[in-house]
Amino acid sequence: MMATTNTTESGTHTQAFEEPLCSSVWVAEFKQQSISLSAVNILLSITATLGNSLILVALHKESSLHPPSKLLYRCLATTDLLVGLVTQPIYAAYWMSVVHEHWSLCRFSFYATGVTGYALCTVSMLTLTTISVDRLLAMLLGLRYKEIVTLRRTYIILAIFWIVSLVSGLFFHLNYRITFWVSVTVAPLCLVISIVPYTKIFRALSYHQAQIQNHTQQQPSQPNALNMARYRKAVYSALWVQLVLVVCYVPNTTVGILISLSLKGLSNFIVVRGIANALVLFNSTLNPFLYCWKISEVRRAVKQTIRQAICYA
Questions:
Q1: pLDDT score of 88 more than 50
Q2: What is the DSSP string of 120-189?
């Protein structure tokens, strides 16, 4: 969640952009847009909460996924669920507080949205980066993969991610400069780290496919063929989730950089920033659909859960 930063004046990192929004100066000009943004975030809060609750139930029932891989997806679904339960309702309250001129609530919800938004989005980025590395390790380690990538080690890594992300989010209120530079550093770093494993994976998959085509008379064993097909499917599933996150996050990062470079004409950025932030939060609604679309095991578990819920109803 981006707010403006003035890196030349200590102690005013968010004040320059936060005060005009929590002021009657902008109410008349942006009242309708504020109401619309509040309504959109309430709707997205409901869809993200329902969708990710369903995914968590389905992942709990699904047993065919490798436990560390399932834990990573459960972590993603948990962050998306918390976005729907916490961040989006607070963000909706923020826009409504602007409309009704409740300035104390406006400032509180502004900081609360920033703290929770930064923390949860950072966990999501780090987790997705870990998934890309996990897919590469599955290819490189072969039979040793399950011995090295254990559930305990995955829990430790995710615990570190949560601690770092929560501390980073808290600095949004205490010292925005730290949070700003963490986000500017972590986001590109995660993207670069993710590109490297996927590049290596697709090169290996292309080489494997070429080998099959060059030795048509020497058919690979059926178990190996099935394992490679399943691995390829898992890679594409993770890649889709990664690409959607990038699409949702890039506009927000761009707007944040533009705001940080110039404090002139802030009114031009108010609604644009609100839309860019809503797009980031929209990612939490999209992910459950991606899981159901690209991961057949999750799709089956979701269908089973829905059928059971209908029967019990």
A1: yes
A2: HHHHHHHHHHHHHHHHHHHHHHGGGHHHHS-HHHHHHHHHHHHHHHHHHHHHHHH-HHHHHHHHHHHHHH
